Each structure stands twice: as structure tokens, then as C-alpha cells.
Model the fold of this input.
Amino acid sequence: MEDAAVRPPAPHGASPDGPVGRPGEPFDSFFPKDIDWKRAALETVQRHPLPCLVGAATVGFLIGRYRGRIIVGALAGVATNMVLRQLGEAFTAGDL
Done:
């Protein structure tokens, strides 16, 4: 470890140079690099509206079924924070 080119490992085995690779890297060989994903998705929905609607409903149902309590808890926390922030602003402004 005395050599200037040798660096100690980063914590938890992470690369000292930061994240290595990209999330889509394994799929780069399957899909062309110049594809317009937004246009392709819109065309797919326009050509097959009912299957896309059924797919979206199925995914929404499954997410709600298995992660519904977490989502509702998070939304309740956000709503509570918003209400408390407004109440705090009302008390500090002297409107009450």
C-alpha cells in the first residue's frame, strides 16, 4: 500500500471511483442506442390501448395489494407534515 497508484478499498467494498457501469448496460446489446423510448411507448399505447390499460391496472393492483400499507403510510405522513407546517406558519404569523 505504499505505492501511490495503489489505493485502499472503499468502505463496504464499493469502487473508490464511484458507481461502475450503468443500469441499462446489460441490455445495450439487445436494444439500439438511438431508440426514442417515449415515442415508442406512445405508439404502443396508441396501437394497443386495451392491453396497455389491463396491464397498467394489473400492475397497480399488485403494487396496491403488496405495498398498499406502506404507500398509505407514506401519504399519511406527507399529509400530516403539510398540515403541521401550515399550522406552524399560522401560529408564527399571528393569524389565530
Summary: The longest helix spans residues 49-93.
